Amino acid sequence: MSDDKKSRNGGKILVEALIRNAVDTIYCVPGESYLPVLDALHDTSAIRTIVSRHEGAASNMADAYGKMTGRPGICFVTRGPGATHASNGVHTAKQDSTPMILFIGQIESGMRDREAFQEVDYRQMFGGLAKWATEIESIDRIPEIVSRAFSIAMSGRPGPVVIGLPEDVLFGTADVQDIDAVRVPTTAPDPENIAEIRAMLTRSKRPLVVVGGTGWDSESVQSLKQFVTANNLPIAASFRRQDLFDNRDPHYVGQLGLGSSPELIKRVADADVLLVIGSRMSESVSQAYEVIKSPSPVQTLIHVHPDPFELNRVFQADLPVLATLKSFANGMAKQSPVEGRTWDEWTRDARADYLKHSTPPPPHAELAGVDLGGVMSYLNETLPEDAILTNGAGNYTVWLHRFYRYRAPTTELAPTNGAMGYGLPAAIAAKLQYPDKTVVCFAGDGCFMMYPQEFATAMQFGAPLITLVINNSMFGTIRMHQEKTYPSRVSGTRLSNPDFVAFAKSFGAHAERVHRTEDFPAAFERAVKSGVASLIELMTDPLQITPQMRLEEV
Fold first, then answer.
1. What is the pLDDT of residues 81-102, one digit of tens each?
2. Is position 165 within any domain?
3. What is the pTM of this model?
4. I want to staple 425 with a disulfide (CB 3.0 to 4.6 A). Which of 60, 97, 169, 407 is the partner?
């Protein structure tokens, strides 16, 4: 702990607390409510300030940073409307278990409860949305509250913290003692847990590993692979966690979520032991809590999670294991293989099912426009192993989740809460964090229009990402459900779009429009070589609503 005491305003004290906690980047939209923070950032080269054009985009960038680094993504927004806009990213971080801290400017303390200009009670607003929502009520407590925020954001199940910053606290001055970076506690599996897991696997004939959650790193991912390989276990990824295991590995059998293989879903139902590592087994993973039934699964359930409040919360586990994912994977990797296994054929068949399902079929005979299966085949063949792919929400993501084969951790940035518009802000954060990696954003025409103005951010800060806008002139997911429930009664799902190519070029970006599948490779290569943020608009068949279904068949 430092004994250095200097009279500083609250903004400088806060920025020093961020520096001490190894913050190197913040995402923000500036506001007069936190001017002292902006002023303090002017005097430090330790923190890079990325200014977005919308608070929702800034909060999504912070979420993406948290996913990539395992450290809290830091976002600053102004009070009132700034906070409500930024709530989008807070919800994403909560459902995605992403460490994040959102700082919000606040009215002066003496003006509370008068509905002052842009006044919002952030504890009340974010109480059920964030992992912790608070307000710094005294300048002396800034280091303490910031330290606690980092601890909460990263401990157990990671998540978002929201902190209100009253103007009088930021503009006030005081002699405040700085404190060192917080250390996050860890938990490891009990040796008895590991012995019991081995015994359960020994008795199993149809085991299945399901991997998900956050808190993984390269070492733990490698340990997971070592454990799975040594025991020839089939492993599936939970929703939008496909990058946790090399999809080319013979043990990988698919993902549970949008675009899941019917064969994999049946295999989950038929498994006698489910070893779930890190995943909460949400609605999409559990198939509406029916294939993995709540509260008592039919399968023997081993549930490994770093947060005691997640264990036995929705599913009663036969063996709940409280451990960080890293400690569990490393511990299992050190064990000798389970003797007498009988599931080799089960694993082989599961892999064969995955390969069949994840191979793009020939395009439909009546397909008009670009075949997204062909696009995915090209990207599988040409993208570097560490390329980062981002996306928001919509039926277009089914092609990505089903046909792209992820190879390395931290290469899939996608919101498990189904937030539209996530892809572009996440891609900007990724390209700025890893400038040498290829970053590709996927967005439907409806999804892209949530935060299209962030092309200005990409150009301003030099983020030469590639955005693929899949244009079918409608909200495809909603239209699909509409046709299922109210056939031929189209309401609210048609889109009249701008000229996306002209739009992107207006920012100085590279942009092209592609009508034919065979023209995509050359267009993509031109985008890569352009050296600036790029947009490729893919004109797709509005009737091809999923890879296997046309709209008239719904």
1. 999 999 999 999 999 999 999 9
2. yes
3. 0.95
4. 60
